[in-house]
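ingest -> validate -> predict -> emit
validate: passed (alphabet ok, no gaps, 199 aa)
predict: started
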Amino acid sequence: MDDAIIPALLSFVFAATITPGPNNIMVMASGANYGFRRSIPHLIGISAGVLPIILLAGVGLMAIFEVVPQLETVLRIASTAYLLWLSWKIANASPPGVGDAVGKPLSFFQAAAFQWVNPKVWATGLSATSLFAPERVLVSVVVVASAFAIIGFAANIVWAWMGTVLQHWLLVGRRLRLFNIAMAVLLIASLYPALRHGG
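emit:
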């Protein structure tokens, strides 16, 4: 990879990871509902899940989608179903201090696994490898994947922090419930660009 394109790569990854998407919305909701410390496994899990996806995309996974286009349809269906379930979970999250199964943040493994059905990760990861590592040389692919893992982690920290800033304000009346419903709706809406692009 030519050093001259590194700034363009970093700008692309920053724009892709700081703008609203499923991960950003989910970590903001997690920060608001459970606080920053309890959201850390979720944050780390996102980066851990994104890294192998972009590595695989860069070393030839795109070719599999070209040969078997039905896989892309299966991925879109799985993404939609899982995001709808997560939206329901967010909308029905228990207030802090209510100790039921619904009131738990995503774990490291749940957040990492979610990346495999996150349409934004696939769309931006495939675009980035096409633009910045078209030759599919391993070193270039590792640079692209690492940029997503590191910059994405920083971007998600910002979103989780914004959730924690709202936390005390949300504990008044029905604000938290309304916030969670709004986050669930935004999570569903975040499907639209990726699904439209895929269709």
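Confidence is low (pLDDT under 50) at residues 98-102.
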